[in-house]
Structure formats: structure tokens, C-alpha cells
Amino acid sequence: MEIDKETKEKLDKYLDTMTWYHSEKLWPQGFFSTVGRIEDNMKKLNQNIESAISSSTKLTNALNKITLAGVIVAGVGILVAICNLSFEIYKFIATK
Predict the structure, then answer these.
(1) 52-90, pLDDT tens digit by residue?
(2) Contact (CB, 8 A) for 3 and 11
(3) By C-alpha distance, which of 3, 39, 74 is closest to 82?
(4) In whole angstroms, how far apart are CA 66 and each of 59, 62, 76, 78, 79?
(5) Of 52, 58, 77, the residue nearest 66 (C-alpha)
């Protein structure tokens, strides 16, 4: 198979262009910059997780305090109900 002169010139120009392109492109730097971006994203993710843990801890403490307040209020309510029942029983017994 013979290649004519014009095709050979086009092929040579193409090969020269591709050689220049690949010699100018820094493949390891592209790889390392990708790894660096992944590392930065992982650091940001770690910071987000740490802030989420902190927020979750604060929320848990707040909910525990609210629950304790609810238990105290319910306990006082039960104590008032028991006192009221005792008073009614006392009134019933005292009238006989």
C-alpha cells in the first residue's frame, strides 16, 4: 500500500501535533491534582461530619433537658392528683 505525498504530510502533521500535545500535557500532575481535589473534598466532608456530630450532641442535650422538664411537670401533676384524691377520700370518710 502506497501513501501519496499529501496524505503523508497530513499524517506527519497529525503525529507532530499529537506528540506536541502529549509532551505538553503533564499527566502525573493531572493525576495528583485529582488526588488533591479528592483529599480536599474528604477534608470538607470530615469537617461537615464533625459539625454534624457537634450539632447532634447539642440537640440531644436539649431534648434530654426538655424531657426532664416534662417528667417533672408530669410528676407534679400526678402528685396534685394524688393529693386531690386523698382530700376527697378524707372528705368522704369525715362526713360519715
Answers:
(1) 999 999 999 999 999 999 999 999 999 999 999 999 999
(2) yes
(3) 74
(4) 11, 6, 15, 18, 20
(5) 58
Q: What grid cell was written down for 32?
A: 495528583
- Scanning the structure block, which residue is given the C-alpha cell 362526713? 95
What pLDDT, on the 0 to 100 scale, is given for residue 63? 97
Tell me the per-residue pLDDT of 4-43, one tens digit each, with 9 for 90 and over: 888 888 888 888 888 777 665 555 566 667 778 889 999 9
- Cα 44 from Cα 39, distance rounded (Å): 9
Amino acid occupying residue 87: F
Q: Which residue is associated with the grid cell 509532551?
A: 23
**For the chain, how big is the Rg over CA atoms in Å?**
40
Helix (H) or strand (E) holding 85: helix 27-95
